[in-house]
Amino acid sequence: MTRNSIISTRWLIIVILGLASLLQACGGWRPGYETPTVTIKSFRALPSQGALPNFEIGLHVVNPNREALKLRGVSYTVSLGGHELIKGVGNELPVIDAYGEGSLMLTASPNLFAGIRIVTDLMNASNESIPYSLEAKLDVGRIGPAIRVRDSGQISLRPSGRQ
User: Cα(first)–Cα(last) distance of the chain, in Å?
Assistant: First the structure.
């Protein structure tokens, strides 16, 4: 074998591997794919045995695509008063049918030290509300990028009925 034929064979192998990689990458790309919509359906404290309650976070997912959405996992963070109160993950998630919708519930326990800091801040502040934020990332596997959800607002600290 001549030197030129060895170089040509190496280049041919490199080009074939490059094309194979490109085809594999394009296999996950789907024309017409729309990012599913995720909204926060509920956020509530659950009864608990300890000093801090557990929380239940409900998410509603709408799948506008012709293929079922097989959620692989979710990671999320809940902050209250600027402190990360809850961080968690989940992997037992439902399949959302094509052109369908569904709900998923996440149960999380708070970070004890963040909870103590929040209580201390509330005792020292005269605010009538406290800011909250929720960030979640849903892994949909290869069919598309992760779905990221962000929600924020204020929780009133006034007793209900008092204006």
Answer: 90
